[in-house]
Every structure is written in C-alpha cells, then in structure tokens.
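Data availability excerpt. The first of two example chains:
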Amino acid sequence: MLVIDLQKLESLCNGIPYSTYFSLFDQVVLPVLCYGADVWGYEQTERIECIQLKLLKRILAVNNTTPNSAVLAEYGRYPLYVNYLTKCITFWLKIIINMNDNRLVKQCYIMDYNLHLSENLLSRYGYNYV
C-alpha cells in the first residue's frame, strides 16, 4: 500500500487540503456524473470511473499505471458505480413500494419485470428476492 506524507501531499495540491478536493468532487462533480442514474445506473461505466481515478492519481502524484484499487484504497474511496447502482436500486424500490399500480412508471416496471429484463441486476448482486 502507498504511504502518504500529508505535508508533501498538501504542497503538491498548492496548499489546499486533499479533503477539500474530495468535498468539491462529491458536491459538484459527482451529481453531474450520476445525473439520471436512477434510470441508466444498472451497469458499470468506465468513462465515469476514470474521472475519479484521474483526480485521485493526480492528487497522489502517481503514474497512470498505478493499480486503481490501490489508489481507491489509499483514500478510502469506493468506485463510483457503487453510487449509481445504489441510486438505481433505490429508485426501483420507490416504484415497487410507494407508487400506485395505476401509475405509468409502475406499469412499465411490472411489464419489464415480467419480461425478466430488470431482474438481472438484482440477481447479479444477490438480491433476486427483492
């Protein structure tokens, strides 16, 4: 695992604490990247993942060939697909639990479920009983 010298890291970031970078990323960039993930977030997207990884590698000042898992673990961050898969599943649960059966969105979900198209994501991660 990489060892971080916090003073050296802050000097690389022009004196700005790295926690500020993460806070800005989570509050400004992440909502843009995950916009609409309720609908499209059922599969991992490499284009979105590379944005966070580039930021982390730049802050750490490591080579692009450094393993992604090592960089994520060093900062205690998760891949972004965890965020948008969670949004997608949360949206499905809202449809199933809170919506009336006469709503168009729920009717589409039921039709999709009956065709076994939406079952793949939940069963892939061990939640096929939902």
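And the second chain:
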Amino acid sequence: MDILPLDIIQSVFCKINGTSPVYLTSKTRERRVVETRRMIWGYLRQNTDMTLTSLGNLFNRDHPSTLHNITKHYAATSITPTGVLYDIDYTERYRLGVLEIKHLFESGQGEKVYRDYMLTYYNPATDAYIAPVVKASSLFEAIKEYEQYNAITDEELVLVKAL
C-alpha cells in the first residue's frame, strides 16, 4: 500500500497533538506525547504490514509496549454498547490526522497545500459562538493565523475543521 513518508505522518500527528517529533523517542510519559505515538502506531498498523517489533523500533519501544498502545488506540476509537465513542477527543484528533494525511497524499506527497479551516469558538464578551474561516496548510496553522488578529483561549475554542 502506498503511504506518505514516516516523517510527514509523524509531523501531522505531532501538529494535531501540539508536540514535537523529537519527543517521540524520549522516555517521557506526557499524555500528548504518548497519544501522538499511539495515533502514529494505530495509523501505521492499519495502513502497513509493519510488525509490532518494527513499529516499536520507530520510537525505541519494545513489542509489548507497542501492543499495549495499539490496543489502547483501538479501545479509544471504538464505540460503547450505547453507541457513544469511548474517547471523543482522542478519536476526533486521530480522525483529523487521518484526513490531513489523506489530503496530503492525494495532493502530491506532502507538499504544503492551503485550504479553508473553520474555527468555532465561544466569545464570552458577546455571549455567542463565532466561526470564522481561515486559509492555512494545517489545523494548527489555521489557529495561529487567526490568533495573529484575535486571541482565542483553549477554553473558548470549540472546534476546528477543514472545509
């Protein structure tokens, strides 16, 4: 199966989780780094024929650690018996990463492509939800682009989605 180079896949999930690829091989247990590794492993497990050992070697981890994290990835993205996602936030970030990777692949193997992103946030000053559209090459660049003119706190930001 054709997929993007590993460094592009890593950078997409790192941007979405707000971390750096440098931390992926470190021993840190910081949640955003662990979840980034987990998303990358989950994506590669579904889209390649890499073994658990070779996946673990990407981040200096052993086979059992990789298996544990892939199992946690599948659990987080699965649906409860009542029809609700187990981890909505994680699943949404993973889905956005997969969509970004798919878009990059279809548009030319990772070249910078600009598209419209809609940022939905709650403005407490006006007691209203605002949804401006920003042209950027990634979700986090869209937020940065908008924040050059209007600051948005993490509590105010509700959703960012590609149009």
